[in-house]
Amino acid sequence: MNHERFDEVKDAYVLGALPEQERRELEEYLAAHPERQAEIDELGNVASLLALSPPEQEPSPELRRSIMAVVEAQRPPARTRSWLAGVKELLSVRNLALGAAALLVIGLFSWNMLLQGQVKDLQGQVASLQDSQQSRMVALAGTGAAQRAEAEVILLKDHKAVLMAEDMPRVPENKTYQIWVIEDDVPQPSGLFEADGDTVAAVVEKPLDEDDVIAITIEPNGGSQQPTTDPMLTAKL
Amino acid sequence: MVDLRRQYLLLADEDLISLVVGSNAEAFATLYDRHGRAAYSLSYRMMGEKQAAEDLVQDAFLKVWRGAGSYRTERGSVRTWILSIVHNRGIDQLRSLASRRRTQNKVEASAPKSEPSEAFAETWSNSQREQVREALGTLPPEQLKILELAYFSGYTHVEISELLDLPLGTVKGRMRLGLKKIRDYFDSRDVAVPR
């Protein structure tokens, strides 16, 4: 796609009216010419006003209930935290109970030992949970053709990380996505991945530290030693 | 719990999104209560029937729930973001399923065109909606029809050209003029285009 063709079809693009092949071509053009992204953003904002024009319709209460039921079922992190807090509280109560029992009722020594065993088990579970809580997620910001993409880096223990991405634009033939970890302004190649489905996952090969920056570019097949295109997605850790 | 819910009602959309990133279901429910109606209205306009419209809204809001971390303030308001998710998913669905709906639209497209004043006659409670209504009301019917076929029905510019028996260049030209006229409406009043 050239400049003239871009000007010709950009209105159709923001209205969602380009066939798949043309849409991909325009997004590849945008990736190569990020200076034209502002035009698309401005036009897209105007086109999005159409979303406010339909006559208002009231959704059914069942729809809300149905959505919230899925949401409630899909929030394991909050439940895990709540359960963890409960375990900690339980531990505190149990410890107090242990102290009181030891001072007041010598004859209950064996019961006391049993409780201590339970406390150790619970402490082990807490430590295990705390380990699993050490992972955290950092969202990557997309530009150009990757604006619609959703990507996150999941930081695990020992500086390991996994990249999860959704709705990444397809890359041209003979090209691939490459992950970079930028430490002290020096980009280091950290893995390749293809975006041939809705969701992709890729291991970040270089260990990550605080203050590193992670970036994704499009590179020739096999990857590059230095980035040859502008980053499509970035995040500072 | 009631006090907590009241607090959520006072929060800006951007703050609610931050809470949703942390899997806060109450914040998510507040966002749904604010924007679910607009999302459903758009969805119903695109899908044309209740069940498909509800499925699309559910799909879109679950994407909001799972993908709240990808929202970027600089790209537009939370409402625009949510509606764009509904729109993009709706277009995908219309294009993959299509034929029944397309036949229906073909009939609509060949029927006498309604005047914008009739198409947007209902009362608008929201001032932004009212501005948008007025802006669209300034469009000639032939431009508005092409924007609607593209935006709500998922037709490509080539398909619109075939459907309306117009040269492709004319379709592109009307798209360009239609969008420009909407922007000009706000520029002429020295008002920023709503985000």
Structural write-up:
- The complex is a heterodimer of chains A (237) and B (195).
- Chain A is α+β, with helices and mostly antiparallel strands.
- In chain A, 44% of the residues lie in helices and 23% in strands.
- Chain A has helices at residues 3-14, 20-32, 37-48, 61-73, 76-104, 109-133, and strands at residues 136-142, 150-155, 161-166, 175-183, 186-193, 199-204, 213-220, 233-236.
- Chain A has an eight-stranded antiparallel beta sheet with strand order 5-4-7-8-1-2-3-6, with no helix packed on it.
- In chain A, a hairpin with a 7-residue loop joins strand 1 (136-142) and strand 2.
- Residues 77-94 of chain A have low confidence and may be disordered.
- Chain B is mainly α.
- Chain B folds into two domains: 1-97, Orthogonal Bundle (Rna Polymerase Sigma Factor, Chain: A); 98-195, Arc Repressor Mutant, subunit A (Orthogonal Bundle), CATH 1.10.10.
- Helices cover 74% and strands 0% of the residues of chain B.
- Chain B contains eleven helices and no strands.
- Residues 109-125 of chain B have low confidence and may be disordered.
